[in-house]
Amino acid sequence: FAGLSLYFEDGHDDLDDFGFDDYGSECDGIRITAFLDAGQDNLTPLGRLEKYAFSENVFNRQIVARGLLDVLREFSDNENDFISVMETVARMSEDGEPTVRAELMEQVPNIAMFLHESQPNFPAAFSRYLVPIVVRYLTDPNNQVRKTSQAALLVLLEQGLICKGDMETKVCPVLLDLTEPSSDDDYKIEAVAIMCKLVTMLSKDTVEHLLLLRFCELCSDARLFQVRKVCAANFGEFCSIVGQDATEKLLMSKFFDLCSDSLWGIRKACAECFMIVSNSTSPGVRRTKLSPLFISLISDQSRWVRQAAFQSLGRFISTFANPSSTGLYFKEDGTLLEVPRCPFDRLGLGFDSGGALWLALCCRDSPLSIESSMLQERNNNPPTNNEETEQTDENFNSFHYWRPPLPDISEELEMLKDQVPLQNQTAGIKEGEKEEMVVLEDGEMAGLKPVTSSQIQKVLDCLQPHMDDPDAQGEDDCTTFKINCQIQQQTSVLSEFKYLNHSSYSCPPPPSPLQNVIPQQLLDQYLSMTDPARAQTVDTEIAKHCAFSLPGVALTLGQQNWHCLKDTYETLATDVQWKVRRTLAFSIHELAVILGDQLTAADLVPIFNGFLKDLDEVRIGVLKHLYDFLKLLHAEKRREYLYQLQEFMVTDNSRNWRFRYELAEQLILIIELYSHYDVYDYLRQIALTLCSDKVSEVRWISYKLVVEILQKMYACGAHDLGLNFINELIVRFCHCPKWVGRQAFAFICQAIVEEDCMPMDQFAQHLLPSLLSLSSDPVANVRVLVAKALRQSVMEKGKDWVVAYSDELEETVMALQADKDRDVRFFASQDSNMALMDTAALI
């Protein structure tokens, strides 16, 4: 009520006009709707609302606008009164004072939610009265009112409070008018921004029919670079909404124009949304058109554009990922799993490529389900004789159905096989052509017809589209096998001529094995991100971006191409910047899933071991996912880390208690990976040490770890080890000279009962007497937990065996109920089904 004091300072002392006279001088207790209360004017509440809503005093009108939600609540019981209030609101929206209009618009989202909750009584009130106000304020001459209206509109859409009809007939038409070429520049820029923000909240049909063509026009706005920049920044959202067909037919040409815009800020925005655009295109467009376009951005003259492009490079590469080839996919919760085998997978129809790292992929129905059902029927009803097997339909062939047949290269092969004396062939060869001759090993050219590399390339070009054809994944296993046999048979002859005799003809050496999953230029640029020169000319943190996206790139390339990334990964793992190593440490468990157990053991375990000895900032990365990594190792390799777990107790800064807390949480998970003997020998001591930590948060999570260890002992039938552990707990905690240790014992006892860690008769025999002895502890906080343990757990879950200790238990509980401490009496008297107080509050 800052304005209230100003109003009084101006000499206004007619408090009764506001209806505030009954509330004293304490402003905090004043209701905004106090003006509705009966006063000396003998007006009804609606009359008083009318009076102040259209008062000559601006402050009166502001107060009414600010209190509209409460006003509606007070009149919501009577439909006629409610409609009168809404009509008053509609009239108030035409107030000439901008502050009043802004105050009213700030209340619209809250009013809309109230109307939504009261929809059975007022189904059309929001659409009839408030939506027109929001739309009209989008063109308000006052900047503050427009901004408030835009913010309110976004909130209404996010909450789903504006129906599709209102969006299509009321909101979108106004945005289209404001984005006309003749529109005012300021209005146009604001309208483009709000339109781009709305697109993700609208349906595909609405965007396509109403906004898509206008967006394409705005992308080419030659006069206002601000408009083009907004379009570039939101280009990916439009692509993801309208889908592949519209993206390739309408939006792709605009994207090319924006990527070559004269302003570097627009090109930078394109680089930042490149991955989303790529996900909205087909694999062919992604490879043949977007890849060269991205290379142009990564080589841009502007450092800021190059920086954004390199930051997006790994994400763009990940759009080439295909679960059918990588064998992995992401669930919605982010878990990386192997692709499940299903009938569609057998045909290679289960997945689309693109964005595998960033999107959760799953099997989908295939449009070729007819063919799959035919194959299934054929498998279920095999032919009965060979003649029937040999019969084929000339009009239909499953191989032809999927793709064109392999070209006939028999003539070329015959040409290659045709061997004639070398001396008859070299006579007419020019000096410049000798470098292209292909010969066999050790220069054995006698009796062979020389073949130039261009001739071999011609043959390979005929085969290459069929060897890497992405549309060829539809064949069944049998057809695929036949195709591979044909390709291998046709290329086997070529392999004889592919060896280059370097000593005789000085030909360049054969290139190292390359991958064919992504365009090689993209991979080369990605691998160059570890080059120190890049950090100087592009981005000082470029290596960190490389490390961040490496799991996605590895997933895209697959296990078979890990050799392309291995050196880069090792370089990043030894980078001088700890942030780079930290990034790898946080994702090494995901990379282990991608690479499999053999590559993990060979290439990741050494790096993992190095991270264990690194700075705490790096070690925390492997610690947070220690369980996830260890479970991927073979048992014998995993057991080696039992000796190193103790090292996590030592940190660079002893005050870093969250490190020890994380260790306790991980140990709770790790217990299942080891035998009860290993748990007892190695994890037990770590748990007991953590239970004595100086920080209470670490101690309490460690008590849960102790309970899990005890449960492991008894679940495996190791009762002797369990009893030894119990005796150790009694000595260490029940007889602890510090009250926190004795309190911990009571908590552990309660958790043991609740988690059914051991037979209750064993608990009664070995733990209950010690627990009862703490009922007379001098510290009230200890007695509180004893009361809780007895009343909420022991007496509730131990009904069958508690009879033997009923007298002692009854005496203990009665003593606690008469305790001098109020909290002890409360918990000792509390029924087990009552709400429990948070244990941490008692510490």
UniProtKB/TrEMBL annotation:
Domain Putative WW-binding: 394-436
One MF annotation (Gene Ontology) recorded for this entry: protein phosphatase regulator activity
HEAT repeat residue numbers: 290-328, 767-805
Superkingdom classification of source: Eukaryota
Any GO CC annotation of this UniProt entry: cytoplasm
One Pfam match: VPS15-like_hel
Record's keyword terms, sorted: Repeat
PROSITE patterns: HEAT_REPEAT
Keyword hit for Repeat: yes
Protein name: WW-binding domain-containing protein
Organism: Oncorhynchus tshawytscha (Chinook salmon)
Classification lineage: Eukaryota, Metazoa, Chordata, Craniata, Vertebrata
